[in-house]
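Here is one chain, start to finish.
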Amino acid sequence: MEKTGFVVGIEDQRALVNVIRPSECGDKCSGCAGACEIKTMVVKVDNTLEAQVGDRVELSLAPTQFVKLSFLLYTVPLITFVLGVFIGYSQAGVIGIAGGDVTGLGLGFTMMIATYVIINKLVGRSKKGDALTMVGVIRKNDIISD
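Its structure:
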């Protein structure tokens, strides 16, 4: 996965890069006509190419990192949801609660939400750019204009 963005600041040996967040509809804005709001986010990336404020940079996410993050963000919560539904459904009668379906769904959703909270704490918002690497820089002075 590759992204481009603009360097908006430098902290220590890291560049603060403003990138466009992917939209929920899949970034197909030209064929959508939905007038979606373009959202951006700032990520910290190791400044290996000595980019400066105002430079346009190309960022890359290694395929292995992409698979790991996708597994962590999608598969693990799904597994905890299914596990919660199974436990809630099977144990509802044992603890004397009628309606194992509702209990199972309630426990499943609770476990899934708890999993998202734990993952967010572990990954941390400040480390979003740790998986990204800087692969190219276009200096603001190098842009050719007519």
